Amino acid sequence: MSNTIIIGNDPAGAPVRIDIEELLATRLLVQGNSGSGKSHLLRRLLEQSAALVQQVVIDPEGDFVTLAAPFGHVVIDGAAYGSAELAELAARIRRHRASVVLALDGLDLEAQMRCAAQFLSAMFDAPRDQWFPALVVVDEAQMFAPAAAGDVSDEARRLSLAAMTNLMCRGRKRGLAGVIATQRLAKLAKNVAAEASNFLMGRTFLDIDMLRAADLLGMERRQAEQIRDLERGHFLALGPAITRRPIAARIGPAQTAPRTSISGLIPPPEAPAQDMFALLHADLQDDTPPPTRPAPPPPEKLDSLIDRISSPQAPDLPAGAPSAPAPAETLSREEMDAALDDILAEMIQDDEAPYRPAAVTYQDFTVRCRMLRLPANSLSLAGFRRRFAMALGGFNGSGEQSEAEQAVLDLARAVPDDLLAPFLCIARAAIDQQSCPNDEQLAHIYGTRSPGRVRRMLEHLEKSGFIVLRTDFGGRRSVGLPGLNLSTAPQEA
């Protein structure tokens, strides 16, 4: 599965790509005046990467709630829950890797800042075993990380700024990759903006913003004028996840649209002034109460929302699409294990799979499960690591095992997770009476390119009593499994 998405095209028509895996490590800053196309850019990014990585959107205007139906995002109305409930929801989002949109359009500015701060801080404080990769998209970031004090209380500003700083400065190690969009760089706190390594700069007019954008793009100051001339939906791109040299990008179309979008002009009704006056004053009484906004729909109950986060449903398929596979509820345990083995077998065909962090590989696994209508939590992270190591070592988690295979798997319960794959690879060679795997083969299974680490790994397995190393006079290595009467053939020259 490719890690890159197409965000748009350059002036020559060539696709402009973003490497999502690199973006998780280097973060993204988007700048552009109102109407420059920032929200459309974020929407395109979210739609194209929805199947690759978990997404959390901080949405102050409620523009991104339309992602829910086609892409399965869970919409959380920030105005409907208290501080403790939001913290619990954020913790469950990290645990279950649900993609969500936190809609804050029902709150005033200070309440939005407090709500976003509580939500981001709870995600940041998740336990280490839940540090899964996730894109955290914050629209109108200057509201949550202002460069100067405004009309809100100092406490709200401090909480919100601290949460945004943690996201951009320390979030990478916790799997949280910040994608922030702002109308003006001058309004955004510098310690938040400085942590982004990728930039998409749209149209802006003030000299201070043009100069800062040009500095970030590595352009000379006399070139900053071209930022003022950018058309709507056009951005200058730079960064390790996009390009090493600044390029112009025209953002491609999006599948969804904001809830309230006005395109084009709507002429006023053609009516004589006298008729319009009469229409406005008809039945008007002095005691007529002022018009009121319709009451919003009641918020979703917390228990129902937690259920949807814990087991998100697949989006509805468009008309005419091929029918989906049978849901997991109709599969037996044996069929489920066989399906998981097929997924793992497909994953290990990628030569780079053993070298990736476990959390990244697990995210790939959960995406593949959802594509087959299997529950994303079919295996916990710990269970996945061992099943993935078994697949790398040549063992299946389903089907009947031979007596020798079962004996090896019983012994393997005591082998640490990070050493399990090379141990099982050696055991498979011993069961099949094949030659001992060489250092290059073991290094690939072990997820390293260092021969020294392979030698230290073998020495550790031997000191722990899991294997016995033998070397003949010709320097050929063979490995025995104590207590199982199994041994590999000597290593081939």
Describe this structure in words.
With 493 residues, this protein is of the alpha/beta class. It has 3 domains: 4-259 and 303-310, Rossmann fold, CATH 3.40.50.300; 332-399; 409-493, Winged helix-like DNA-binding domain superfamily/Winged helix DNA-binding domain (Arc Repressor Mutant, subunit A). It is 40% helix and 14% strand. The strands form 2 sheets. Strands 2-1-11-10-9-3-8-7-4-6-5 form an 11-stranded mixed beta sheet. The longest helix is centred in the first third of the chain and has 17 residues, at 154-170. Residues 288-299 have a biased composition (Pro residues). Residues 284-330 are annotated as: Disordered. InterPro entries: AAA+_ATPase (IPR003593), ATPase_Atu1862_pred (IPR014588), HerA-like (IPR008571), HerA_central (IPR002789), P-loop_NTPase (IPR027417).
